[in-house]
Amino acid sequence: MIAWSLWQNRNSCVWNGVKNSAKEVAMKATFLLEEWRAVNNLQQHSNLTASIITGNRESAVAVNHSQAI
């Protein structure tokens, strides 16, 4: 997320003449990471719930394994 935020800041500077401070770039990277984690956790929870409902044990095991990583 840090690299993505730096890249976006670079593009904003080159194409729009707008350059954010290092603090703003860091805050943006932190926000993007928190947002990604929230969505990723929600998707994993949804996959696990669907696996339990359908009785697909292999998917449930795979989801549980990926959460442990």
List keywords for this structure.
69 residues, mainly alpha, 3 helices, 87% helix, 0% strand
Structure explained in plain terms:
The protein has 69 residues and is mainly alpha-helical. It is elongated and about 55 Å long. The chain has three helices and no strands. The mean pLDDT is 81. The chain has one domain. 87% of the residues lie in helices and 0% in strands. The longest helix has 33 residues.
Range of helix content: over 70%
> What class do helices, strands and sheet pairing give?
mainly alpha
- What integer value in Å does the Rg equal? 18 Å
Q: In sequence order, what are the helices and strands, one letter per element? A: HHH
Structure annotation, total helices: 3
Q: Assess the beta-strand content as a share of residues.
A: under 5%
